Amino acid sequence: MSLVSPPPRSFDGQKFARRNLLRRGMVRNPDIANFAFGLFIGFGVCLPLLGGGRLFLLDWGVGPHSGIVTSGSLGLNGGLTSGAIATAVTALFNSVLGGAVTWLPILLFFPLAMVGAGRLAGGTHWVRISAGVLYAVNPFVFTRIYVGHLALLLGYALLPFATKAVIKAASSSLHRWPIAALWWAGLTALSPHYAWIFGVVVLGVALLPLYTKRLSLLRTTGWFATSVGLFALMSSYIFLPHTVTNLGTQVGQVSLDLYSTTGDAHLGLFANVLSLYGFWRLGPGPVLPKDIIGGWPLLMVALLIVVGVGVGTLLHRSVDKINPPSEASPQEDAERDVAGPGFREREVAVIKASYFDVGSRYFVLLFLFLGVFGYFLALGDQGPTGSLFLWAYDHVPFFSLMREPEKFLMLLALAYAVFFGWGVEYISKLNLFTSKSGNFLAAALVGVALPLGYSANIFNGLDGQIAPSSVPASYQQADSLMGTGPGNVLYLPWHLYMSYPFTNNRVVANIGSGEFRRNVIAGDNVQAGGVQSQSTSPRSAYLEQLFNYGPTTKEFGALVAPLGVQYVVLSKTVDWTGYLWLGDQNDLKLILDTQSLEVWRNVDYVGVGWRAPTLTHVTGVKSLLSLAQDKELAGRTVVESSGNAATSGANSSPSKSEGVKYKLGPASVRELSPVAYQIDSGAAGWVSVDAPYQRGWSFKGRPARESAEGTLVVKVGSGEGVLEFTPWQQVRLGYLVSGATFLLSLVLVVTGTRLMRRKGLKRVKPDGDLGPGY
């Protein structure tokens, strides 16, 4: 063994500085800690979901055949195109990731929400981690995971990022003004409710500077008008279709009553909303955190106390309280020399800026504004502001989409998170214990354990309440048997929500539309709160009446043939035995019978449409049943309800002599696309097409009419033509305007920022020298 010491190595200043900068960055960068802890929480919640199968939830069902382009994205769902972008993105990831796409949004939500809330709250690690934990783990998030509002939750996770960006953009140079509209439109693409939820944030950012005299009236008005105008243009694809077609669902007081915020059985409405509860659907499920935590109101009070401490801390905080930099060590001097002149000064300026941001009166008032507004808006038409909410619901365009007002609660959660983080920061510096470990433990208990305990059963798949499901192989077998083609699949039982044996009898969204390659007609009846259905679809209304007459008819295939139904799939779940009469129909042939489902082929299906020289009028479903029994349907007759009759010489009741004695082949009508049908030349008369009726369909300038089955009827001559869904022109224009405005705004922000950086310019200061924070 040599006793000679190795020669001393020369000091490598650059290497030391890089290593020290990395170490300091890992310690000082709170995003790393928040992201890691958020990912840890996410895995704790999603651990049971990481295996095989797909996650089906109450409003979340992504099957293997979910389409990128859907009827909704084309405006065929009553012009409701708001979810088109989120649906397309989900379908794209579904084609790549498969079943993982059904639970991955939940996993990603937690690190995103924690990092976003931490950045918005600012300050030390304790501020950011505490704010992130409360924002990501609370009863509002718990409930939305259970019901499957995953796109809404992703928007909720991005809301802090958007809020911080808007705060900065309002006092920035003109080229950064579109940032608010970019975030606003992006969140609205995830869920249309952000049009109003984030609108409150934009309103607060615009109003409060006027109160605090931080910005001039002219500047604030210009920024607000720019934000609203650009957002309106970016959302043209949502707004334009509503001008030319009818909604596919009912709005009004019935909807408001059904989706109203609920109160606690013991504490009532106001305390329940203050506790971040109040989701409208009371059952079946879930078991909420407050259902299993004895004395949960005490935890709520503890959280509110910390929130109040945080408000007081921020109100009394000032930039002068920032300690000046201490004497630098030799190692820090070496690091500063490598980093270049002014390194230490720039570092101190950044620290002061961040402290100024969260310590300003504007910052505190903004989040008080958001919390108070979020609370009262979440009450909906109840409480002291209920009449104002009801007025807006009845008179303000598009505000009716907030028929479930509890979604506004995310603004209160955002305010809670910011103030809670600063409350924990204050507690961490009280030095309640003589040792650092004791103070650390106290802050950890308040800042982490308290919010996690308040929603304790969120882990392990909401305490086993959600789990992935493996759809029986018979569904794939049925899909292979039916193949592809223009014929529709009628999926029964007729429910929008129902339980399945493979979901452990947990109620989920109807899975039919995502399991087969053919177009699926499935239940759209909400069946909740005493409301059977809110659908305005005449096709759905016709089917629901038809099911009531099912046991008394033998020609069900002929009765659904005008809807383009080529196959009927009966899933053996819930009340499926109520559809056993399908086996007694003369025109349905059983082609598959398994333990999970049955598949019937409609022998009366002839194609997407047929032609008849005259129009037969009926008074209701009973008249159609009579025609079916007399063999006057099944591709031989075009029928219309008497309420829509406008043909001269037409009888008000069905007549056998009016039925057509021949039928043309299925090539008489061909589907060019979901929004256009080619009608070939033939005898003059009437053509029925299996597309569901809604306002906007026309043939050669003449509007289509509603058939007795809820489909399209048009009068034709001997020549050919195209039956078009004219609102598609508005939808297409909306996509073009929205996309162009979004891209141009993005280019303006990016190029303007780069240009100013090249010229060495900084953001303009607000009116009145308030320092570098904004």
Describe the SSE topology.
Blueprint: H1 13-28, H2 30-46, E1 54-55, H3 84-97, H4 104-121, H5 125-136, H6 139-147, H7 150-170, H8 179-190, H9 194-211, H10 217-234, H11 236-239, H12 253-258, H13 268-274, H14 289-292, H15 296-315, H16 330-339, H17 343-359, H18 361-378, H19 386-395, H20 409-428, H21 436-454, H22 459-464, E2 468-469, H23 473-482, E3 488-492, E4 497-499, E5 507-509, H24 512-515, E6 520-521, H25 538-549, H26 556-560, E7 565-571, E8 588-593, E9 597-602, E10 609-612, E11 616-618, H27 621-629, E12 639-641, E13 669-673, E14 676-679, E15 685-692, E16 697-699, E17 702-703, E18 705-706, E19 711-716, E20 721-725, H28 727-758
Parallel strand pairs: 3-6, 3-7, 11-12
Antiparallel strand pairs: 1-2, 4-5, 7-9, 8-9, 10-15, 13-14, 14-20, 15-19, 16-17, 16-20, 18-19
Helix pairs in contact: 1-16, 2-4, 2-5, 4-5, 4-7, 4-20, 5-20, 5-21, 7-8, 7-9, 8-9, 8-10, 9-10, 9-18, 15-20, 15-21, 18-20, 20-21
Concise structural overview:
This protein has 774 residues and is α+β, with helices and mostly antiparallel strands.
